[in-house]
Amino acid sequence: MTDGTSELQAAPPSPEPVVAPIGVSLRTAVCGFLMGAADIVPGVSGGTVALILGIYERLVTAISRCDATFLKLLSQRQLRQAANHIDLKFVVPLGLGIATGIGGLASLMNYLLNNQMSLTFAAFSGMILASSLLVAKRIPRWRMEHVGVLIAGILIALRIVTLEALRNPPDTLGYMFVCGMIGITAMILPGISGAFILLLLGQYHDITDRIKGLVHGEISVEVIVSLGVFAAGCLTGLLGFSRVLRWLLLKYHDATMAVLCGFMLGSLYKLWPFQADTTKDVVKFKHKVFEHFVPREFSIDVVLAIVLCLAGIGVVLLLDMVAVNGQQESA
């Protein structure tokens, strides 16, 4: 006959719960909401918000665990082990929060682009400028080769944003898939805005318009299919290209950061606040053609644009300051 202590020692450990306590899940969902709200704004990185909230490393780890081990566990129907492997109790509430944040702000961003494009672009420009400076700060010591790839990145971005194809992007599901694949990769990087990438690719307005319609109950086969294809592109980019990007950052960190900084600076041409609509008869925003101009007088609109640009710079720098302080306190 054995005593109770021996029985307790011999008992196998209880499996890790798949579902987190409600309070923990709620906090994770709130973090996801803040990330989603940031991701929908061109110029603010959801990755930066994740850093501020202290969940960035856990997020990257969860993404990296969508690997062969996870697929093997699924094929063997070891669902609990598979869920714990990818930290499902963290991923699910975070994902729901992100979706809620994106859906909540999609209507506002869509409205601002349609009705206040000049002032909206001014604020976005400030955010992108500040974000590019933060990316540049990630290079501890600048060398001539870094300056070279920075300039190359600027020139390549300028060429891309002035391409005729991006002035009138295709209405194909394949293009939407590619946009999702590229955009999601930027969204998980601190300092890089995925929404800005979608804006450059000419899909930002369409995506926010479809999300806005979905939130307001305007459901159609076209909306569901297009958003489904976009989501599939996001998943592909998350599991595939994000690994390549992490490899580049591991092996060629400084050069990769210099190129990304150049891309952001060169892309600012797309966000020049003063653009005249030369196609007023065109309804769809992404098919409109805008012509850049320089204001001839110092009007109230110019002053507002400058103020909003500076405000955009301040918001991003403040977020970065909070993130840095949070990392130092947790170290």
TrEMBL record:
Q: Where are the transmembrane segments?
A: 90-113, 119-136, 148-167, 173-202, 223-249, 255-272, 298-319
The upper taxonomy is: Bacteria, Pseudomonadati, Planctomycetota, Planctomycetia, Planctomycetales
Which keywords are on file for this protein? Answer: Membrane, Transmembrane, Transmembrane helix
Q: Which domain of life is it from?
A: Bacteria
Q: What is this protein called?
A: DUF368 domain-containing protein
- Statement: the UniProt record of this protein carries the keyword Membrane: yes
List the InterPro entries hit by this protein, alphabetically.
VCA0040-like (IPR007163)
